[in-house]
Amino acid sequence: MNATAIRNNTQFLKAEAKRLGFDFVGVSKAEYLEEDAPLLEQWLKNDYQGKMQYLENHFDKRLDPRKLVEGAKSVVSLVYNYYPEEDLAKDGEYKFAKYAYGKDYHFVVKDRLKELMQSLNDEIGEIDGRIFVDSAPVMERSWAKKSGLGWIGKHSLLINKQQGSFFFLAELIIDLELEPDLPYAKDFCGTCTKCIDACPTEAIVAPQVVDGSKCISYLTIELKDQLPNSFKGQMDQWVFGCDVCQDVCPWNRFSKPHREPEFAPHPALGKMQNREWEELTQEVFSEIFRKSAVKRTKLAGLKRNIIFAKE
Predict the structure, then answer these.
(1) Is 158 assigned a ligand-binding role in the annotation?
(2) 134, 175, 236, 247: which is the annotated catalytic residue?
(3) What is the tens place of the pLDDT at every residue in 15-71?
(4) 189 among the known binding-site residues?
(5) In Å, how far are 14, 92, 102, 206, 280 from 273, measured between CA atoms?
(6) Is-catalytic flag, 134?
(7) Span 156-180, mean pLDDT?
(8) Residues 237 and 271 in one domain
């Protein structure tokens, strides 16, 4: 394929992604993530994955997209904003992470990616590839940095200069050659340690390194066992996920409310009092979280978190 066709295809993809609601789009060449290999290996050796055994699987696939999609030439990284109009987390009340306010992002973002793939096929011809929304062994933050979308903050999340960090990352791994973007070379965190200092469970053990087994998001969502007593009194009343490290990040002053109607919270979510959460029934749980990511914990899991977080 000649350079003009590659450029035109890249421009079409980026314009179409923006039309479908993605805020930023970047492209990387599909190749082995050499720098990430020793970091991932050490992270796993330290048991920072906790009980998330699935993170130990497919080590090579995590580092090489060509093992996920045969003949892959490009990794397209995309940003989808979820910052809400109103922060529902209030001191003294049980709190839910902002990303879980509305409809489960896996479905919303995946639907947009399917549309994007269809548009590419219609415009360019048959393209082989896969879409990913936090659902497979893909080093999404590494690819996003490599494709120029931002830098990895000390809390280990991607930070974008224009939009902070309250967004979902998604990927297309495709066999179409595209113009790669320049990697994000600069780190704008500087000497700031607000996220490290604010973490209620001291889960950020070094800049860009999170001990997942201590993270409130892991404890309230991924961990299926009883919560360890050592975390009693440290949950800051978070019962599904946690936003502390992002809330204190100075770059999130640039966060703008999303434009996705499907991410609007159920009206009851901001009105329920602690007593009502503690007496939550299956019927009310099913109504409020009908299409929400919170369904992952089931009622029993959410009640476990509420009882544990209760001061």
Answers:
(1) yes
(2) 134
(3) 999 999 999 999 999 999 999 999 999 999 999 999 999 989 999 999 999 999 999
(4) yes
(5) 44, 10, 19, 36, 11
(6) yes
(7) 98
(8) yes
Percent of the chain with pLDDT over 90: 96
Domain of residue 57, residue span: 3-85+104-174
Total length of the chain = 311
Task: Determine the pLDDT at residue 217.
Answer: 98
| 185 found inside a domain | no
Mean pLDDT value across residues 187-199: 97
Q: Is 13 annotated as a binding residue?
A: no
Using the predicted structure, report yes or no on whether residue 7 has a pLDDT greater than 90: yes
Q: Is 33 annotated as a binding residue?
A: no
d(CA 83, CA 255): 7
Whether 189 maps to a domain, the answer reads no
Annotated binding residue 245? yes
Whether 275 and 156 map to the same domain: the answer is no
Residue 134 assigned to a binding site? yes
| Mean pLDDT rounded to a whole number for the chain | 97
177 burial via Cβ count (<10 Å: 0-12, 13-18, 19+): middle
> How many domains is the chain partitioned into structurally?
2
